[in-house]
Write a structure and sequence with these properties.
The complex is a heterodimer of chains A (135) and B (450). Chain A is α+β, with helices and mostly antiparallel strands. Chain A contains one helix and ten strands, in the order H-E-E-E-E-E-E-E-E-E-E. In chain A, strand 9 (110-120) and strand 10 form a beta hairpin. Chain B has 450 residues and is mostly beta strands. Chain B has helices spanning 10-26, 149-173, 177-200, and strands at residues 46-52, 55-61, 69-77, 84-92, 98-105, 111-119, 123-131, 134-142, 227-234, 244-252, 270-276, 282-285, 288-291, 294-299, 305-314, 320-329, 346-348, 356-362, 368-369, 377-382, 388-392, 407-408, 412-418, 423-433, 436-446. In chain B, the strands form seven sheets. Chain B has a four-stranded antiparallel β-sheet with strand order 1-2-3-6, with no helix packed on it. Classes of the chains: A alpha+beta (135), B mainly beta (450).
């Protein structure tokens, strides 16, 4: 019976270790963030939330979710913790209401504020999302 | 000689286990962790003092208990209260949720005015407060307590222990004493795991509440870059006796962008104090947030003279900062200066530069209310305006977790401060009673150390 108990304990320990490893293992899955301004809503998808060059997909709707004709989307990022700001990137329009940008928005691992400047039928407004960036 | 050892029966042990189980199961209900974040008080919520439409209002956004769910907003109006309609609109910047409402302040009736809005999601919000042709947009977050991994382990352990205990009792009743013993030991093991986690829970990290901002990793050093301010009046040259709007644009010294990360510091995004150079005029206001990094407050009927402006604020994850400016009204001719003197009830220890001085003010009969997070405030300024101090009362603290509607017995206010240099200082002592903000001006001469 002692051996059985020992086996069960070892199995539980191995299971817990494996679970912890799976949860804490570094991974760069696409990350999605949503934000709203008084008239617009934006969903931002990063191919990987890490520093360096990234691909950013931006889907823009009216605040209530209705499809709208968006003229332009520009992205810039600020890291308030240390006071960094990155150059503005103009996103390319890939479909009605959908834009894609490619470039270096996040210079280092930190929490960045990604400003999505949207120009559309209601004028120009900024949706800001907070993006935790890893290495 | 034989000694009879009496072993407890299996059901007896199980009933003891049941008692332990019940006691342990109730333990987590005491001292459950609550949501918290920088700039917000857990029991009260967000407090924003606002000087709007000539009224000193404290906007209190209460913590949410369910989302989607009601969002309670209380306005605490201080005298003098006019007949005034206040429109409120809560707008999420995370989801599409928007809710609005309005209430009416009744002339001469200070106190708490409750309103109920709606929160559709957790996360960041803006509350627009509009009254008398003026508007302010206040940032806040709707938070809900998160669940920590240790809580899951503790509750699951207790649940498993409960099931095992019932099984053990059934086994004992059948009777299957061997099985009951095994199940009893398993119950004990589950209780041990859950109990250990509960005991250690005070030292385990609390999970971030739902809706909280991402927490940045420490990067060495602390705080955010310094802010600087463009401060001016509208009109640029106010006429004596006319109203003027004082505008403050805060700029980040590292990025050149607007500073839009202010958090409530002593129940306000910013404390703006205007004093005349000669010390004859004092006004402590709480400017409206009119845009990202933009603050404004309307000053009424300023007499001719030269004025000093001091603005205190706190950025997220940073200490407080102070920016100052000067402006003139009319020709800048001064009003009669304040002469050194002590109002009735004010006493102080010897005034020597560089040494702590304690000032005590007897407030007289009647209870005092907490205002801006404290029972009393003392503002100090030297003759030239090179020093500006904001000192808090150091006497017995008002009970924590109470808002400005609660009055507590306070007989005297005590402040201890060191005057940095010898010379003339102007002082203004403030406290709240019956929703009226009392201001006691004085002037003192501080001696040089021997």
């Amino acid at each position: 019976m002692n051996r059985r108990v020992l086996f069960v304990e070892l199995a539980l320990g191995a299971l817990a270790t494996a679970g912890y490893a799976v949860v804490s293992w570094p991974h760069h899955e696409p990350a999605r963030f949503t934000g709203t301004s008084p008239r617009y809503a934006a969903t931002v998808t990063l191919d990987r939330p890490s520093s360096g060059v990234v691909d950013v997909d931006v889907a823009v709707t009216a605040r209530n979710g209705a499809a709208i004709a968006v003229e332009a989307v520009r992205l810039s990022a600020t890291m308030p913790q240390m006071g960094h700001v990155t150059p503005e990137i103009v996103a390319d329009r890939v479909a009605p209401g959908r834009f894609r940008a490619h470039g270096e928005l996040f210079a280092m691992a930190a929490v960045w504020q990604l400003a999505v400047q949207i120009t559309g039928p209601a004028g120009t407004e900024v949706v800001t999302v907070e993006v935790p960036i890893g290495r | 000689m034989q000694v009879a050892v009496r072993h407890p029966s299996v059901p007896g042990v199980l009933f003891r286990l049941l008692a332990v189980f019940l006691a342990a199961a109730l333990a987590p209900l005491v001292g459950a962790a609550a949501a918290s974040a920088h700039g917000v008080s857990v029991p009260i919520g967000y407090e924003f003092a606002q000087t709007i439409a000539g009224v000193e209002l404290t906007v209190v956004i209460r913590p949410s208990t369910a989302v989607p769910g009601p969002l309670r907003v209380d306005l605490v109006a201080h005298q003098t209260v006019p007949d005034l309609v206040v429109d409120l609109a809560a707008r999420s910047t995370t989801c599409a949720g928007t809710a609005s409402g309005s209430l009416r302040l009744r002339v001469g009736q200070p106190g708490s005015y409750p309103a109920q809005l709606w929160a559709s999601c957790t996360g960041s919000y803006e509350l627009e407060v509009r009254a008398g042709g003026e508007a302010s947009t206040l940032p806040f977050r709707v938070l809900l307590p998160g669940t920590a991994g240790w809580q899951v382990v503790a509750y699951a352990g207790m649940g498993v222990a409960g099931l095992l205990l019932v099984s053990a009792l059934l086994a004992a009743a059948l009777p299957r004493p061997a099985l009951a013993a095994v199940l009893g030991v398993a119950t004990l093991a589950a209780l041990l795991v859950a109990g250990t986690v509960m005991v250690l829970s005070a030292d385990l990290p609390s999970p971030p509440p739902a809706g909280a901002a991402p927490v940045p990793a420490p990067l060495g050093g602390s705080g955010r870059p310094y802010a600087q301010a463009f401060i001016g009046t509208d009109p640029a040259h106010p006429a004596p006796g006319a109203d003027a709007t004082l505008r403050v644009d805060l700029i980040d010294g590292a990025t050149g962008e607007p500073v839009d990360d202010l958090v409530p510091h002593h129940a306000a995004l910013a404390h703006l104090v205007v004093t005349s150079l000669d010390g004859g005029f004092f006004q402590h206001t709480h400017p409206r947030r009119t845009g990202p990094g933009r603050l404004a407050v309307r000053l009424r009927a300023l007499p001719s003279g030269e004025y000093l402006v001091a603005v205190e604020f706190t950025r997220t994850d940073s200490g407080s900062q102070l920016v100052t400016a000067r402006f003139a009204v009319g020709s800048g001719a001064p009003v009669p200066p304040v002469e050194p003197g002590r109002p009735a009830g004010l006493s102080m220890t010897p005034l020597v530069a560089g040494r702590p001085t304690t000032l005590e003010f007897a407030t007289g009969p009647g209870n005092l209310q907490r205002w801006l997070g404290m029972t009393g405030h003392l503002f100090l300024r030297d003759r030239d305006g090179g020093f500006f101090g904001h000192v808090h009362e150091t006497g017995p603290l008002a009970p924590g977790g109470v808002d400005e509607t609660v009055a507590v017995p306070v007989a005297a206010l005590r402040f201890t401060v060191s005057f940095p240099r010898p010379g003339r200082y102007f002082g203004w002592l403030q406290y709240a009673r019956d929703f009226r903000i009392m201001t006691v001006p004085f002037a003192v001469d501080v001696a040089a150390p021997r």
